[in-house]
Amino acid sequence: MRSKSRYIRWQDGEMWLGYFEQFPDSVTKGDSRSDLEENLRDLYRDLTSGEIPGMRRVGEPAME
């Protein structure tokens, strides 16, 4: 099953940069947009695996 997570991306000169909204401290880069997206998939796997201790995430409280 595929998981979806929104990310922010931008081009800086020749390089593409991006990060996931829920993990704003973890930026990755690529030589092209498709390279960036491949690196983002790898990064997301690492970030959600629980293998990296102390990862900060963005969250929203449940409001009643």
Structure overview:
- It is a single chain.
- With 64 residues, the chain is an alpha+beta fold.
- It contains 1 helix and 3 strands; from the N terminus they run E-E-E-H.
- The protein has a 3-stranded antiparallel sheet, covered by helices on one side.
- The radius of gyration is 13 Å and the shape is globular.
Largest sheet: 3 strands, antiparallel
Uncertain runs are: none
Could you tell me the mean pLDDT? 90
Order of helices and strands: EEEH
Strand order of the largest sheet: 1-2-3
Helix/strand-derived category reads alpha+beta
Question: In percent, how helical is the residue content?
Answer: 25-40%
Radius of gyration: 13 Å
Number of strands: 3
Strand content: 25-35%
Shape: globular
Oligomeric status: single chain
What is the rounded distance between the termini?
31 Å
Number of helices: 1
List the helices and strands and how they pair.
Blueprint: E1 7-12, E2 15-20, E3 23-30, H1 33-48
Antiparallel strand pairs: 1-2, 2-3
Please describe the structure with a list of short key phrases separated by commas or semicolons.
64 residues; alpha+beta; 3-stranded antiparallel sheet; 1 helix; 25% helix; 31% strand; globular
Brief write-up:
The protein is an alpha+beta fold and 64 residues long. The protein has one helix at residues 33-48; strands spanning 7-12, 15-20, 23-30. It has a domain at 7-48.
